[in-house]
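Below is a filled-in request sheet from our internal design queue. Each sheet records the structural input a requester submitted and the sequence that came back. We keep these sheets so that new team members can see what a complete request looks like end to end.

REQUESTER: design group, bay 2
PRIORITY: normal
MODE: inverse folding
CHAIN LENGTH: 185
BACKBONE (tokenized):
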């Protein structure tokens, strides 16, 4: 049995809204949101860690590249547990790289580095952790996407209108780069 809490973001959550409270979450029972073709599940966020880090999963089908973006103050980790994910990154000097990550592979994106990813196989899953002085960005997913109680992928992709990308609050430390071009594959 898991306990449900009311939070500022949801009427029911299995994640307590305040720090300093131990908790357990069964597989898939974190705060979920649909964005693009993916299901994002947050297991720990800024509220629980005093904005030190977050822990989430992103799972989805083979699909299109997620829009290029960067986090001015946040470091991000990509750890692939299922399928395959192509990670595109650019360092602060403008050098671009891409790497196909498969189960057990790890990718690190420093703060202020443009990046994007694309699920390369159906049923791919990434474990993500983000940390930095800018706080955490996990509530960005439900702000740009749609909160859901569903355990699975969205029936149809949730693609926000272009103007919504500019409305994402700065507190989420996500800056989209609509004109960014990847010179790698």
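RETURNED SEQUENCE:
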């Amino acid at each position: 049995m898991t306990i449900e809490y009311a939070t500022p973001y949801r009427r029911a959550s299995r994640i307590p809204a305040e720090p300093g409270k131990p908790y357990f979450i069964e597989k898939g029972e974190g705060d979920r949101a649909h964005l693009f073709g993916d299901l994002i599940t947050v297991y720990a966020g800024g509220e629980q860690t005093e904005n030190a880090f977050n822990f989430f999963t992103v799972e989805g089908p083979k699909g299109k590249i997620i829009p290029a973006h960067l986090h001015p103050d946040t470091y991000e980790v990509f750890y692939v547990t299922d399928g395959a994910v192509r990670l595109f990154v650019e360092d602060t000097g403008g050098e671009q790289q891409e790497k196909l990550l498969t189960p057990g592979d790890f990718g690190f994106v420093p703060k202020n580095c443009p990046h994007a990813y694309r699920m390369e196989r159906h049923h791919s899953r990434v474990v993500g952790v983000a940390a930095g002085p800018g706080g955490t960005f996990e509530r960005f997913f439900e702000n740009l996407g749609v909160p859901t109680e569903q355990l699975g992928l969205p029936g149809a992709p949730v693609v926000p209108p272009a103007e919504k990308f500019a409305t994402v609050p700065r507190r989420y430390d996500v800056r989209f780069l609509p004109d960014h071009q990847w010179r790698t594959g």
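SHEET NOTES:
- The mean pLDDT is 90.
- Residues 30-150+164-176 form a domain with the Jelly Rolls fold (CATH 2.60.120.10).
FILED BY: M.R.
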